[in-house]
Design a protein that fits this description.
- By secondary structure, this protein is of the alpha+beta class.
- It has 14 helices and 20 strands.
- The protein has a seven-stranded antiparallel beta sheet. Strands 14-15-16-17-18-20-19 form a seven-stranded mixed beta sheet, sandwiched between helices.
- 37% of the residues are buried.
């Protein structure tokens, strides 16, 4: 039978008498049955011993064999430092078997064969803790598990990676038994709660036994994915490329990417830092360390965006609105913009950068979706932008076209291709670009139609607004918006 919160029996009166005076010799009380224990099975090489595991007054984890006696052969093997010793808390034995987790390896501190007592240690592994990514602020969480007897303990995650997490737990350290399976529930404002199931592999009690620090190792692939997403979305310096080094591609990571308009000086400072970090990664203006040096006069007449992956800003872009004023066009100052674009109305997409830790993950297209939504609201027909040669095919796949114009990158000697997107050509006829465009931007179009109505798109479409193709595009956009929630 599984034993949890075993009552003090046998020597209980003696324990009660010894509890009132101050304890001068911790070793004198090491063998007393503790007030909280879990049934456990000790693996000593090939031998198996049933008993109970609890934390004693010295802070060590003590295994007391049934009958308070250790067989002589087992005691002899425990005296050999090379003997492998491991523990299985019986309260979670079925879960451990289902998750295909073996016994937890522990170290032997001392053995008292006469009392059937084995003192074990499950100390924190310093190198493991130090290499884990750390969120900017501790992440509030709740800890629960079968060995807690339906208790839920408050916790804060101070470090987290795909396979381990370190948490400061508020509650008695005696409840946090090494080897038991716990569920750590983490709530973030940008996502549904993350439920991380893992096994306690190390415990370090706090002052006065009022709390403890634990290391939790993820117990199943779903928890590994969730922990990887949480680390990617909260820990500075841990990005998609770090995940690739673990061989992971967590599902649903990009669901936590949202694009928001810049509001306030703090957001502007974040924009400048992203511009600096992304450009200096490619060797542009290596001496411009001050983020303010990456400001631009046209920021004042632009709509700026931040791409946030969870808590972390990872991308930025801006939409330069010229309103027909040629002095407000970044491209016109460098190359002659054809008159047809001035007549149809256009906005410029520029300063689109992605943090180096997240490059190569099609985040640019997510930023482009927000730009597309605003362009629909502004009623302009064209989007103009520049692209380095290796990115031009990415934009061509969503309907971008090249102009016979090139320019020099504003922060380097690289030559960029000037490109444009003709909204009327995409929205008014069904062709090979329509399917690609709808897959990438159809939901944005549908949501914009539901919010703003048909008038903004009709301004762009002009005479083609009544065509069957335009009706099909609008209808598909609405369907995709509803399907995407």
């Amino acid at each position: 039978m599984t034993l949890i919160d075993l009552p003090v029996t046998g020597r209980a009166p003696e324990a009660a008498r010894m509890a009132s005076p101050p304890v001068r010799d911790p070793e004198a009380t090491a063998g007393l049955p503790p007030p909280h224990a879990v049934a456990g099975r000790l693996h000593v090489g090939a031998a198996r011993l049933n008993g109970r595991l609890a934390r004693d007054a010295t802070g060590s984890w003590c295994f007391t064999a049934d009958g308070d006696h250790l067989p002589e052969a087992v005691a002899g093997r425990l005296a050999d430092p090379a003997t492998a010793v491991a523990m299985v808390p019986m309260v979670d034995r079925r879960v451990l078997r289902r998750l295909r987790l073996g016994p937890l390896r522990m170290a032997v501190a001392s053995v008292d064969a006469g009392r059937g007592l084995v003192r074990l240690t499950a100390a924190l592994c310093g190198p493991v803790v130090e290499r884990l990514p750390r969120p900017e602020e501790p992440l509030p969480a709740m800890l629960d598990g079968r060995s807690l007897n339906r208790r839920r303990l408050p916790a804060c995650i101070t470090a987290i990676g795909p396979y381990e997490a370190v948490a400061e737990v508020t509650g008695p350290a005696a409840l946090l038994v090494p080897g038991t399976v716990m569920t750590l529930t983490v709530a973030r404002p940008w996502a549904t709660p993350f439920r991380l199931r893992g096994r306690i592999i190390a415990v370090e009690a706090g002052a006065g036994d009022a709390g403890a620090r634990i290391v939790l190792r993820m117990a199943d692939p779903a928890s590994v994915d969730r922990a990887a997403v949480l680390a990617t979305c909260t820990a500075p310096g841990f990005g998609i490329h770090a995940l690739w080094t673990y061989g992971l591609k967590p599902r649903g990571l990009m669901r936590h990417l949202r694009v928001v308009p810049v509001a306030g000086l703090a957001d502007m400072a974040t924009v400048y830092r992203l511009r600096r970090d992304a450009n200096q990664f490619y060797g542009r203006r290596p001496d411009a360390h001050d983020p303010e040096a990456w400001a631009d006069p046209l920021d004042a007449c632009s709509i700026l965006f931040l791409g946030l992956l969870g808590d972390k800003p990872i991308a930025t872009a801006r939409l330069v609105v010229n309103g027909g004023d040629r002095s407000r066009s970044e491209l016109h100052a460098l190359v002659p913009v054809p008159e047809e674009f001035w007549e149809g109305g256009f906005v410029e997409v520029s300063r689109l950068v992605v943090h180096p830790d997240f490059r190569g993950n099609r985040i640019r297209l997510d930023m482009f979706r927000e730009v597309e939504r605003l362009a629909l609201g502004l009623g302009v027909r064209y989007l103009l932008f520049d692209a380095i040669p290796k990115l031009a095919p990415l934009y061509e796949a969503v309907g971008g076209r090249r102009l016979p114009l090139t320019k020099k990158h504003q922060d380097s000697d690289e030559i960029e291709q000037v490109m444009y997107v003709d909204m009327r050509a995409i929205l008014a006829r069904v062709n090979r670009f329509s399917a690609v465009w709808l897959a990438g931007f159809g939901g944005t179009l549908g949501r914009h139609l539901e919010i703003a109505g048909r008038e903004p798109t009709d301004v762009i479409l002009g005479p083609a607004r009544r065509s069957p193709a335009a009706a099909v595009i609008r209808g598909m956009g609405r369907l995709l918006a509803r399907a995407g929630g």
